[in-house]
């Protein structure tokens, strides 16, 4: 029997994230996942610790931690600190850092490097001695200076593409998080995933709303703009084929010299529209409703049932725009309908 997936949310680690996490807890969200893009918003681990101290039940998750941003020991220590504050509530997912690293002007790390980092962190949490950069390392906190080892926190992988799913299988992680539905052979329990989370942006349409409604533009626009940003980042001039893409690229090139354009292209990622991005959303018209999960409450509920049959156990909603609390409330209502 297929069960409807749980609903969670993904948020940037901003100053007001604690209040939003408290609301998510009241609304029945399973977990709050936090972005790890330090060039775009605050520190993920600081925010997770704040939420851990100010909530009672809601799960906490990295969405997703980028290995290259921190030494494995730093990551293991951060995991231990949050685990002490909220035992049993933390999940740590690792990814290659597409947006986080592009915002720093570098490419995502390789799957080989991600696998090495996950193995190192896993071994550290067990209390083992592990080779890091050619030297042995071990968590050696005395009692009272850190949690005792082993530290039981589940590690996830943000898997995408054949290499990503192969790496997840190689690491024997029982949990994965995705930004899109995997191929048929990589779905759900067929390959032994105990948990499978799916990241989705969008907005719940109210009666009478469409792509021209100001609220919809603000809430669904950032998700659509992120697709344009990714197209430009990976394929350059190919973005010209998208509505408004040529003009957007020209604005980026006029604003910054070559080599610095990544410093502005990803601003507002999945959170808010910049003035450069607004013409993109206007030019796209009704197409902004086709990406992510944008639709009325009944259609959102139907999508929960659909992805549940594919093995998804948790839908991670990314609210955007000026009224994130309102987005969280509407999505929770749709998820429960």
Automatic annotation (TrEMBL):
Pfam families: Bac_luciferase
GO MF term set: oxidoreductase activity, acting on paired donors, with incorporation or reduction of molecular oxygen
Alphabetically ordered keywords of this record: Oxidoreductase
N-terminal signal peptide: none
Chain ranges of the Luciferase-like domain: 12-171
Entries under InterPro entries matching the protein: F420-G6PD/mer, Luciferase-like_dom, Luciferase-like_sf
Chain segments annotated as transmembrane: none
PANTHER family tied to this protein: 5,10-METHYLENETETRAHYDROMETHANOPTERIN REDUCTASE, PTHR43244
Protein name: 5,10-methylenetetrahydromethanopterin reductase
Organism from which the protein derives: Actinoallomurus iriomotensis
